[in-house]
Amino acid sequence: MPKVPTLPTLSISPQKAYFIVAKARQYCAKDGLTDPESGSNASDDGMRSILEDRKDDPVRAELVSVIHDLNIDEQIDLVALTWLGRGDGGLENWDELRAEASRAHNKRTAAYLLGMPTLADRVEEALSMFGHSAEEVEADLF
Fold it and tell me: Does the predicted model carry a pTM greater than 0.90?
């Protein structure tokens, strides 16, 4: 009988990671800014129509707070999960990904992660490689 490979242990719980996924989805689902002086088309208004990105965004503030409140090992795992989810390696490379995330760790983890428009997808993809799903986490909560 073939030996089943042991999955690496995560420092961040799937519940915390999926909470960040949910908040990242909320953060990325923004309305467009309205400019009352805009032209009739994008070229008339200098292509200034952008998604809302206000400094007082409560979802952004909550997400930054949650990431800052993670301990260092959890922050390192979260960054490594994003790299795993974007295809920078597989589970067999987890130790290397995590080591690189540890070397790169600094006080700007939240800003780095929020700069990724696909943060939620990357983390969710990586968590699925670990055998976790949002449905499993939701079932644990109820």
Answer: no
